[in-house]
Amino acid sequence: MRCRILLVGFGNVGREFARLLLERRSELAKIHGLDAAVVGIITGRHGSVERARGIDLRKALRLADAGASLESCGRGVHGRSAECIRRARADVMIEITPLRIAPRQIGVDHIVAALSGGKHVITANKGPVVYHYRRLKEMARTQGLGFRYEGTVMDGAPVFNLFQETLRGIRILSFEGILNSTTNLILSMIEAGRTYEDGVKSARHMGLLETDPAMDLEGWDATVKACLLANVLMGGRLRPEQVPREGIASLTSKRIEAARSARKRMKLIARGWREGRSVKASVSLEAVALDHPLASVDGTSSSLVVRTDMLRELQIIERQPALRQTAYALYSDLLAIRDGRLSP
Ligand SMILES: NC(=O)c1ccc[n+]([C@@H]2O[C@H](COP(=O)([O-])OP(=O)(O)OC[C@H]3O[C@@H](n4cnc5c(N)ncnc54)[C@H](OP(=O)(O)O)[C@@H]3O)[C@@H](O)[C@H]2O)c1
């Protein structure tokens, strides 16, 4: 089966997905019967191109890594990105533009344009899903199209696949997790004697820092993820702006020292819980005891502890993820759609 992919966003995640596709193309064809080709790439400032026979990804990667325009990779595409997406001749659109905190955002326009133009949608962009989950899911369902978003929380580790597909009928009572790799890496590095600035530099070097660093450092990314889990898995109706939030920007070495002498570790903890009929969430910087299930989650690792009615407590741990794990989330969503599993 031929699968024409349109990439919207060709930054850290888009490029890593392109590398993964280059490595796995023959396996995709042989084992999964999927002849996947990227037929279009849309970016913000580095040009947008299409090529029906498939874009040369090696060339696109070379150009993008050098910060050059992609326009020599195919026919240039001009005009509003949403309109280009609607018109594009592709089967699947992968939306990986930057996170924004607002109900109106370009990522939503991209997803709506793809669905109304008959394309399946895969995204690792949390913004559209946290604000418009119900609407986008319903729009995809009525059109018989895929809408998958595994990469929005904990990269490629199965969170939505697990709770929406595998553990059918289970009720989540509450969750707590370390969901932001950047802040966890910085906290671990400060504990090991390095500076806050060293931590930010490492996260940037690894391609983990959000396009706007405040999204990570001021706790927005973790808050959006907490709301996303609460809205998608617990039926909540939360908006990130309304949720109590703390980041790590205000952290002092005194607070770290106090935690250390109390045999505790500083962690940015995201929570979701039920209160009567409503669902609540919060993100806070806390000193956790060493025997807490999240205390040993170090570096870029992330973890989610979920309390449920049937299986009591489950913990998912993703050890030291990097960009490949997010690219894998897109890849596994692609295979799910290929298998007819249109939404988790
Ligand atoms: N990095 C991670 O580890 C990670 C993990 C999980 C999820 N995510 C999510 O994945 C998404 C992408 O992250 P990233 O690290 O790849 O970001 P990034 O490196 O900043 O890349 C963003 C890409 O989007 C393009 N873009 C920006 N505005 C656009 C617009 N209006 N129309 C079309 N393209 C536009 C940019 O093009 P220009 O550069 O030309 O402006 C760039 O190619 C984000 O939503 C992020 O939250 C990232």
Question: What are the defining features of this structure?
Answer:
12 helices; Dihydrodipicolinate Reductase, domain 2; globular; 344 residues; 21% strand; Rossmann fold; 7-stranded mixed beta sheet; alpha/beta; 5-stranded antiparallel beta sheet
How would you describe the overall organization of this protein?
The protein has 344 residues and is of the alpha/beta class. It has two domains: 2-156 and 324-338, NAD(P)-binding Rossmann-like Domain (Rossmann fold, 3-Layer(aba) Sandwich), CATH 3.40.50.720; 165-320, 2-Layer Sandwich (Dihydrodipicolinate Reductase, domain 2). The chain has helices at 12-32, 57-65, 81-87, 106-116, 126-143, 160-166, 181-191, 196-205, 214-217, 220-234, 253-261, 323-338, and strands at 2-8, 35-42, 49-50, 75-76, 92-95, 120-123, 147-148, 172-178, 264-275, 278-289, 302-308, 313-318. The strands form two sheets. A seven-stranded mixed β-sheet has the order 4-3-2-1-5-6-7, sandwiched between helices. It has a five-stranded antiparallel β-sheet with strand order 10-9-8-11-12. Helix 1 packs antiparallel against helix 2 and helix 3 runs parallel beside helix 4 (106-116). The radius of gyration is 20 Å and the shape is globular. The relative contact order is 0.15. The structure holds NADP nicotinamide-adenine-dinucleotide phosphate (NAP). NADP nicotinamide-adenine-dinucleotide phosphate (NAP) is lined by residues 8-14, 42-46, 81, 96-99, 106, 124-126, 151, 155, 207-208, 210-211, 323, 326. NADP nicotinamide-adenine-dinucleotide phosphate binds at residues 8-14, 42-46, 81, 96-99, 106, 124-126, 151, 155, 207-208, 210-211, 323, 326.
